[in-house]
Design brief:
By secondary structure, the protein is of the alpha+beta class. The protein has helices at about 5-15, 35-45, 60-70, and strands at about 25-30, 50-60.
Length: about 80
């Protein structure tokens, strides 16, 4: 996919999917592997009027380790 198409997709998510309102705080949760797209999405969310964007990164490999090494009480 070319960068222009990806940027248009991110703008569509920001404007239609999230429906960002001026000054709104937006939370985005994503796998770290999607960092390049999320950077574009964050820019489009700000362009759509967001006041603040909060990122919540996840990593499947670390989540698996958390589960594998957690004691029963923490699961």
């Amino acid at each position: 996919m070319d960068l222009n198409r990806i940027r248009n997709y991110a703008a569509l998510i920001a404007i239609v999917g999230i429906n960002v309102q001026k000054g709104q705080e937006v939370d985005i949760t994503s796998e770290v592997e999607q960092m390049d797209f999320v950077r574009i999405l964050v820019e489009e969310v700000y362009k759509a009027g967001a006041g603040k964007v909060n990122l919540n990164w996840t990593d499947t490999a670390i989540t698996r380790l958390d589960i594998e090494y957690a004691d029963v009480e923490n699961l």
